[in-house]
């Protein structure tokens, strides 16, 4: 006889299957029983962050680079993002600081900005810094000094206080033309829990104060700014920024800590105020609230100051709990903001005078979900000149439902007035501030459970929203759309033993987010955000477009050349794209009668246009046109000469012409405003594209043609064939290639030229043409998509060096970081054109791209792109750093569950509305509802059993019932009220005259109500359904005779099952408090009970699960990932074919926040999995079915998870342990690091188990099998392998770990290469970096 029993062992509940004899023996013996050893395969897990949480806790205007850079700092839980605010109200990311340790508790800005920046009309356009002006304005004493090795500190420094009490001082410096953080960390000498919940800096930035929730106050005296400046300019580091630190105990709960403003003439006077609440010894006594003020002069001993009791003043108890305080600019006065009123405290250091008034705002908006009145959450002071604040103080007060007050205070009388500004239409939390603008007050709001953004308030006008910050938290549910197959299965076609058309489109990931009026669906996209600034529809298809400065007019206007299939259109843009007009054929100096093939603007400003019939030269004062009929002599010119291809450079124009059955290439020389023939020769085959390139200092011509297959040829100016290469198939044989479509030069260097080319089959070629006689042309191929791929130059975009743009499958990709040795671009970032005014619109298709350089007059000095989208011309402003580009589909109600229907190809969304719950079918492309609900009378309305307020949909599932080889689709809905509803969907037949947009209708087919408790989850197979009602699982099948569900089996659980899965014919039931159970729900038809096959020994408070099959070679086994409320992800091994055996934990990852939903998706492109030397390691870290495993948290953080074989885990574990013991990686910042003396000596301490490099097999316990990919990512980004391995004295162990990967296949050739010593080590490090790059490659 066996039974299950629970034991409390090692701090947690453990469930075991025991028999009666064992139990009796155990009770009669005093010997301690040991846990049974569960045999399971060894496996590790890696998690890395793909997308950070969009939640922002604080926003601060900062000048971290210079006085000319209008930056803002967005402070998140673990990430600080610095963005530049530009004149158009849009922001661009500058840098991102990620703290991999404890959370960021608070932040302040140290330093003040020069007052004249608000009226500086000479600031550089686009925020370009002028170092000379900066030094002269901010540091007149050191400007022009040559004795300093480093430039001055910027006007302000951002100070973070972490959960550990450690402080981080950071600002941005320029390193080789790129911004980089300069970071100084200071560790506290005393550990104080929750220190920094209140954090303030005095108006002169000479003191800071931090307090915990209660009992402790810390005051920091900073070194004088001149000392810090001199120290940094001499040594490149701030050193210890503190002069002294003093702590003081407090009695009671701290509500707020602020420094008050002294009189303008008393800048040496420091006033610190703390608001406290405390109770006496009598527990029934009501709490007393008061403020305490300490004031002192600069130079006084802080110990003596804080030892005093300070000035204490009681607050009115009837006003309620103080929310926060607002120091005023004059008379050391301050506001105390309560839930329903505001109190002005005058003369706080003597007998305080209170002036209280109620804050009578309007009724709360639809965004508010609380039971009481909305609270005031934040305040901000706008930018004004110093002279203005001497007479008047201005405060903006914000409420959580988006309502704002404007408060104006007279500095002499302290009389104040307030004015309602209305609502901004979003939820306002603590992330609220104002930023500098020359003509308006700018409000920056982070958004709380709703999108944030930027609003402008101009004089005598209303609030205007100019930008949006996407926010997809809190994430309630998620789903995946598979674009390639209607059934959700994508099988790659195989030709000649290789993949010819593998799946290329990535799955689309959707989140359900928000609540009430802010409820929405969010499609998560990752790449470069391109804001559409100007859109012009010419109503005719455009093949390609170019844009150049108009040097004929000195007004910043520009010409846009639009090439149509048979003619050309010229558009004239005014400066800044404010206006556009169509140039007529009579007045235009361009050729508009034929299609433009290519155009450039030379360094002298002359525009060269090569059309099908002529060449046009447009200079500042003159222009000319030269017909090919006059330039090229052929026997028969009756029909004229029409060029097929053209390419222009500063000196030459190259065209190809077909005549008399042959193709000739003609080189034309540009001589001032004239064009003369230079040379011509015959080329065999069909020419598909041409390009000019510099080789050995001379212009050469690269020709893509088809001669019994694709061919690339390079010709010298005299027509001599320099080299040629057939391109019939990829070098590795993975693809059959088609003709080239375009060629683009990405780098010209001594002895070689690097180009990129697109093909008609969606392949991208990276080609190096060199003077190597043995291998003059080396190349590699990779697939971008399935349609034709075209490449366009983008040299210098974002100052990233060698790069290119590519279009394929109606999408645009930026290819950057081309490395000479690796012969391929290091990054591929999708560019997502977005409409700023409507975040729900999908990205428009892109067919051509042209880079508008920062030197183009009239473009605003920014890197812009000119895109062709069908008949439209788009001017977009592209972010320089990749990140999430979410697309939001607003619903206006709360979403509880969602899924994607593979049959109906739409999103099925469960919502909560005012009158009850509902089911919506949403088109994922348009965001519109495509199905109408029908009630019991087949009329449009609520579905039967849905229109009941207070109910909630807990689960939805698509059921494909199969009978007689026919599939009948249904949607199953489970509810909190104990109902299970089966919904049918059908198409609505529409007349031919109606819109082609599809329409559906859905109605209740069958329902069960009155079940035992809420129906938490449901799953189905081909025959029936399984659902959990209360704590009982029910298995029911459809009885066609009675046309209803017939009960078959049940099973009682210890806690409700919130998630059900059927894997390999077995039922996985995830419970709220008792982990997962694996049951057999089919066998033994005569029994009404389901058989328990496996159960977890540990009781876990689980959230979600997913089952994956890890594979290594031909052997595979199942692992179930369990996420729990504590932030853990545990992998349990499911024994194959072994019943009545407990699940064994293989690994456990402890994350910062729990995973709300696991996502299994095809989100990695074939290119990423195949390129490089280590494709097998990538596949070994994936799953058997090729699906990637992602996990999303409630706060919106998206992580990827990878299962690791033991050989790969050993290598990654070694790097991780070395990194954690290294001082540089401990900072987890991006840039230089300097620690103060209090933070440690800086020595590297290596664990005993890795010192010496002899131990190769660490203990494979579950807690040791977790690899933090964020730490490895930092090592990869900063290229730290050489440093951490060298300082750890583990070079031998590092090489041995790499030798054992895949039996040494990756390092077996190192010894035979002749390399030794440092060269041999460099090969190992190169391999180590390549492995990290492949394993950490983002998949979303």
From TrEMBL:
It comes from the Eukaryota. Residues 56-469 form the RSE1/DDB1/CPSF1 first beta-propeller domain. Signal peptide: none annotated. It holds the Pfam family Beta-prop_RSE1_1st. PANTHER family: DNA REPAIR/RNA PROCESSING CPSF FAMILY. This is RSE1/DDB1/CPSF1 first beta-propeller domain-containing protein.
């Amino acid at each position: 006889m066996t039974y299950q029993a629970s034991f409390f062992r090692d701090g947690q509940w453990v469930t075991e299957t025991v028999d009666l004899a064992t139990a009796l023996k155990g009770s009669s013996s005093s010997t301690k029983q040991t846990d049974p050893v569960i045999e399971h395969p060894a496996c590790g897990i890696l998690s890395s962050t793909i997308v950070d949480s969009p939640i922002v806790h604080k926003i601060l205007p900062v000048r971290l680079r210079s006085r000319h850079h209008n930056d803002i700092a967005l402070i998140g839980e673990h990430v600080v993002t610095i963005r530049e605010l530009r004149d158009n109200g849009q922001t661009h990311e500058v840098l991102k600081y990620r703290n991999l340790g404890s959370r960021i508790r608070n932040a302040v800005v140290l330093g003040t900005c020069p007052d004249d920046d608000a009226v500086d009309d000479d600031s550089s356009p686009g925020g370009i810094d002028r170092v000379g002006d900066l030094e002269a304005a901010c540091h007149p004493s050191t400007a022009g000094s040559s004795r300093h090795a480093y430039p001055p500190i910027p006007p302000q420094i951002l100070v973070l206080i972490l959960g550990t009490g450690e402080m981080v001082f950071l600002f941005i410096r320029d390193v080789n033309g790129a911004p980089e953080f300069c970071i100084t960390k200071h560790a506290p000498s005393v550990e104080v829990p929750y220190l920094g919940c209140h954090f303030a800096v005095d108006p002169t930035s000479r003191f800071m104060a931090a307090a915990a929730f209660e009992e402790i106050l810390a005051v920091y005296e900073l070194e004088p700014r001149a000392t810090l400046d001199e120290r940094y300019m001499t040594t490149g580091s701030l050193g210890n920024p503190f002069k002294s630190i003093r702590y003081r105990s407090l009695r009671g709960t701290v509500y707020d800590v602020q420094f008050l403003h002294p009189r303008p003439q008393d800048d040496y006077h420091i006033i610190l105020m703390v608001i406290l609440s405390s109770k006496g010894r009598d527990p029934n006594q009501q709490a007393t609230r008061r403020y305490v003020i300490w004031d002192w002069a600069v130079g006084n001993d802080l110990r003596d100051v804080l030892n005093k009791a300070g000035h204490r003043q009681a607050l009115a108890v009837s006003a309620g709990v103080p929310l926060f305080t607002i120091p005023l600019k004059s008379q050391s006065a301050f506001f105390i903001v309560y839930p329903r009123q505001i109190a002005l405290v005058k003369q706080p250091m003597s007998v305080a005078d209170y002036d209280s008034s109620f804050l009578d705002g309007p009724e709360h908006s639809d965004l508010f979900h609380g039971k009481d009145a909305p609270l005031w959450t934040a305040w901000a002071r706008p930018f004004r000149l110093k002279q203005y604040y001497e007479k008047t103080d201005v405060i903006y007060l914000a409420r959580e439902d988006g309502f704002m007050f404007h408060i104006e205070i007279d500095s002499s009388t302290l009389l104040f007035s307030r004015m309602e500004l209305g609502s901004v239409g979003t939820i306002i939390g603590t992330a609220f501030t104002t930023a500098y603008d020359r003509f308006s007050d700018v409000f920056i709001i982070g958004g709380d459970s709703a999108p944030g953004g930027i609003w402008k308030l101009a004089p005598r006008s209303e609030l205007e929203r100019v930008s949006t910050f996407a926010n997809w938290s809190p994430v309630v549910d998620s789903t995946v759309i598979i674009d390639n197959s209607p059934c959700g299965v994508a099988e790659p076609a195989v030709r000649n033993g290789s993949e010819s058309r593998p799946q290329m489109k990535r799955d689309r990931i959707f989140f359900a987010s928000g609540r009430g009026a802010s409820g929405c669906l969010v499609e998560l996209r990752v790449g470069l955000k391109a804001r559409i600034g100007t859109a012009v529809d010419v109503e005719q298809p455009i093949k390609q477009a170019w844009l150049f400065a108009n040097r004929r007019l000195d007004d910043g206007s520009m010409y846009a050349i639009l090439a149509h299939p048979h003619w050309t259109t010229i558009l004239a843009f005014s400066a800044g794209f404010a206006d556009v007009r169509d140039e007529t054929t009579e007045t235009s100096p361009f050729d508009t009668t034929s299609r433009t093939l290519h155009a450039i603007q030379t360094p002298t400003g002359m525009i060269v246009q090569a059309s099908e019939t002529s060449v046009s030269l447009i200079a500042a004062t003159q222009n000319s046109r030269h017909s090919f009929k006059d330039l090229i002599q052929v026997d028969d010119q009756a029909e004229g000469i029409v060029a097929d291809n053209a390419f222009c450079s500063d000196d030459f124009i190259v065209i190809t012409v077909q005549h008399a059955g042959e193709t000739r290439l003609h080189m034309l020389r540009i001589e001032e405003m004239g064009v003369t023939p230079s040379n011509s020769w015959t080329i065999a085959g069909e020419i598909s594209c041409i390009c000019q390139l510099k080789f050995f200092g001379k212009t050469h011509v690269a020709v893509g043609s088809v001669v019994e297959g694709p061919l690339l040829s390079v010709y010298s100016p005299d027509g001599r064939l320099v080299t040629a290469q057939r391109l019939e198939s990829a070098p590795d044989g993975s693809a059959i290639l088609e003709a080239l479509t375009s060629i683009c030069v990405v780098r010209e260097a001594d002895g070689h030229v690097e180009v990129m080319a697109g093909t008609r089959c969606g392949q991208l070629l990276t080609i190096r043409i060199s003077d190597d006689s043995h291998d003059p042309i080396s190349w590699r191929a990779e697939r971008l998509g399935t349609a034709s791929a075209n490449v366009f130059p983008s040299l210098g975009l974002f100052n990233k060096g060698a790069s290119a743009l590519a279009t394929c499958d109606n999408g645009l990709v930026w290819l950057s970081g081309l490395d000479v040795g690796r012969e391929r671009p290091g990054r591929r970032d999708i560019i997502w054109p977005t409409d700023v005014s409507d975040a729900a619109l999908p990205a428009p298709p892109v067919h051509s791209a042209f880079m508008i350089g920062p030197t183009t007059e009239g473009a605003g000095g920014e890197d812009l792109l000119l895109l062709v989208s069908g008949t439209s011309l788009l001017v977009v402003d592209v972010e320089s750093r990749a990140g999430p580009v979410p697309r939001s589909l607003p619903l206006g109600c709360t979403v509880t569950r969602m899924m994607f229907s593979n049959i109906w190809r739409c999103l099925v969304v469960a919502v909560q509305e005012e009158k009850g719950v509902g089911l919506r079918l949403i088109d994922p492309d348009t965001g519109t509802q495509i199905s109408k609900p029908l009630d019991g009378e087949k009329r449009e309305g609520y579905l039967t059993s849905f229109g009941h307020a207070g109910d909630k949909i807990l689960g939805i599932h698509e059921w494909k019932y199969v009978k007689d080889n026919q599939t009948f689709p249904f949607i199953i809905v489970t509810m909190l009220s104990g109902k299970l509803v089966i919904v049918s969907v059908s198409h609505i037949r529409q007349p031919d005259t109606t819109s082609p947009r599809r329409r559906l209708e859905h109605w209740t087919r069958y329902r069960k109500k009155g079940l035992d408790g809420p129906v938490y989850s449901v799953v189905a197979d081909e025959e029936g359904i399984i659902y959990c009602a209360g704590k009982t699982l029910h298995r029911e099948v459809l009885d066609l005779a009675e046309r209803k569900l017939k009960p078959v089996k049940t099973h009682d659980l210890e806690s409700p099952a919130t998630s059900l899965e059927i894997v390999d014919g077995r039922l996985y039931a995830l419970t709220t408090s008792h982990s997962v159970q694996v049951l057999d729900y089919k066998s033994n038809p005569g029994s009404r009970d389901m058989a328990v096959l496996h159960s977890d020994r540990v009781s876990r408070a689980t959230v979600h699960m997913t089952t994956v099959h890890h594979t290594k070679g031909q052997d595979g086994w199942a692992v179930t990932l369990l996420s729990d409320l504590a932030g853990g992800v545990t992998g349990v091994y499911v024994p194959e074919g072994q019943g009545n055996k407990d699940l064994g934990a293989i690994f456990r990852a402890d994350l910062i926040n729990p995973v709300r939903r696991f996502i299994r998706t095809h989100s990695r492109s074939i290119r990423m999995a195949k390129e490089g030397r280590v494709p097998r390691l990538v596949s070994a870290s994936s799953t058997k079915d090729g699906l990637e495993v992602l996990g999303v948290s409630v706060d919106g953080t998206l992580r990827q998870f990878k299962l690791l074989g033991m050989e790969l885990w050993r290598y990654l574990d070694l790097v991780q342990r070395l990194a954690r013991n290294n001082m540089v990686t401990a900072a987890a910042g991006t840039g230089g690091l300097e620690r103060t003396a209090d933070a440690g000596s800086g020595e590297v301490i290596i664990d005993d188990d890795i010192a010496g490099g002899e131990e190769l097999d660490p203990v494979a316990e579950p807690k040791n099998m977790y690899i933090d990919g964020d730490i490895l990512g930092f090592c990869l980004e900063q290229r730290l392998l050489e440093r951490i391995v060298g300082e750890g004295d583990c070079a031998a162990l590092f090489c041995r770990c790499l030798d054992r990967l895949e039996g040494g296949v990756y390092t077996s050739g190192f010894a035979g290469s002749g390399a030794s010593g440092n060269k041999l080590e460099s090969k190992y490090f190169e391999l180590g970096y390549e492995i990290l790059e492949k394993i950490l490659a983002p998949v979303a």
